[in-house]
Input
Amino acid sequence: MRNWRLSAALAVLASAVGAFYWLAPAIVDSRLNLVKPHAPWPADAAARALHRQLVVADLHADSLLWGRDLLRRNARGQVDFPRLREGNVALQVLDAVTRSPRGQNYRRNSRDAPDNIRLQAMVQLWPLASWDSLAERALFMAARLDELAERAPQAVLRVHNRADLEDLLDRREQGEELTGVVLGTEGSHALDGKLENIARLREAGYRIMGLQHFFDNELGGSLHGESRAGLSDFGRRAVAEMQRQGIIVDVAHSAPAVVEDVLAMTKAPVILSHTGVHGHCPGPRNIPDALLKRIADGGGLVGIGFWQEAVCDDSPAGIAGAIEAAVKLLGPRAVALGSDFDGAVTTSLDSSELVALTAALQARGMDEQTIAAVMGGNQVRFLREHLPP
Output
């Protein structure tokens, strides 16, 4: 009898542990990546016809972090490949988040603050090496994308170079409902402080590298850190090595001093993948407009986000207003979409509903050429120029 009770207790315990590991990631995901309940956003026949003709592209989403099957249409989160197809998204940058604080503290985070992604890695049963190595976390997320592309080559195409990009565009022109993915890092915490990891990540498919996220790191100060410092000596060497290897540098979340140092040390264009315009929406998430202009004047791209703290009005009309402000400040060739979908932000739409943004831009009187540029044409042109051949 005692053995039977012990076996039953162990079975119950095993079931409880299994349920925790199965349910906990989904619960966290469903609470952090919310889409506000809403009636269908308006989009008339003209907007829908224009949207179908566009090459839609987004510079930033964090969907590889959450453990969803992105080949299925999910009831939670903001991105999966069925919804990207419904939104006519041709090209999506997916970023590896390797370290993040609790909440979205835009004003100040200690470099020694708890590492929430470690808990995520443990709960989702990522490889043991990823629990303590941020580089291994990025490599694991790259492997996740490889697995998706292998399972559904008709839906997912990894874009490593210009030839892949042209293949994607040709196949979509022929009617294939295919989404290309470029890999990026959400900050260079993923280097683990080692220059040689740039090559490891590049080999795994990373073509865009952010420098900071919510914490200061070995490369320099975060927009949300304590030091507000510029590039360190290691940071300068890292930026030079990234550009030597053909990696596009992303200064999202970087302290203004870091952005200034990057722009001073290189003539290669950089991107700021997800942001707002400070003059349009003042706040700690958006860097000074003068720095945005310097990025644009150097041939770079600025991706406009879809969440409240970046644009001050996260409705499609509000996002369109932020895009219009960016176009007025930076010119129509420097502005792109940078949704930050699945970045622990709440939005008013998901990736299936981007026709609402086309309609909102039309409603503001934006001409079709500029709409085509900001909805994806600028990103495609930039990648044609700066991906490896």
In short: The radius of gyration is 21 Å. The longest helix spans residues 2-32. Confidence is low (pLDDT under 50) at residues 6-23.
